Amino acid sequence: MVIKNMKKQLDKKSKFLSYVLRHQPEAIGITLNIEGWVDINKLILQANQHGESMTRELIEEVIKTSDKKRFTISDDGLKIRAAQGHSTQQVKINHIEQVPPKFLYHGTATRFIDSIKEKGLIASDRHYVHLSIDEQTANTVGKRHGKPIVLKVKSLLMYQQGFKFYLADNGVWLTGTVPNTFLIFD
């Protein structure tokens, strides 16, 4: 029971950190720099002032136990950021361009397929389209949105035709858009 309650608390704190570090930092009065970083002590202070019981140890435990690896602590240990997935326009992480593997995968819900067949994959309110290295991870992502479907992306061909790809700190592949001509619908 104690382990279950701890996991529930860590999940709740992870969702809170995602909310403020990816989408609404102003909700607790913090400002992210252009690369998405914020001082950990300031984050803790502001979170506690807004009713969240937050400590450095708790943040480190969230990062250590998260299978999604959404957060990164700076090399000097003083700052934290979300690895990717920002909807706030002030953040522009300078990811390093990488050559992708031949195929990447995108998990989504079946209800979006008609739109994807027409428009391809677009970033919408985020900076990038998120792609996975394997089908299993993409399927897990798709389940979050409804009945899942996994699309195969001809990523290396896209790259060879001038599309840019980046690898986030947590292993998620990022690109600006995926035209429907580079998608395999099985």
TrEMBL record:
Removes the 2'-phosphate from RNA via an intermediate in which the phosphate is ADP-ribosylated by NAD followed by a presumed transesterification to release the RNA and generate ADP-ribose 1''-2''-cyclic phosphate (APPR>P). May function as an ADP-ribosylase. GO terms for biological process: tRNA splicing, via endonucleolytic cleavage and ligation. InterPro entries: Ptrans_KptA/Tpt1 (IPR002745), RNA_2'-PTrans_C (IPR042081), RNA_2'-PTrans_KptA (IPR022928), RNA_2'-PTrans_N (IPR042080). This is Probable RNA 2'-phosphotransferase. The keyword Ribonucleoprotein does not apply. It holds the Pfam family PTS_2-RNA. It comes from Gilliamella intestini. Its EC number is 2.7.1.-. It is an enzyme of class 2 (transferase). Belongs to the KptA/TPT1 family. Keywords: NAD, Transferase. The keyword NAD applies. GO terms for molecular function: NAD+ poly-ADP-ribosyltransferase activity; tRNA 2'-phosphotransferase activity. Coiled coil: none annotated.
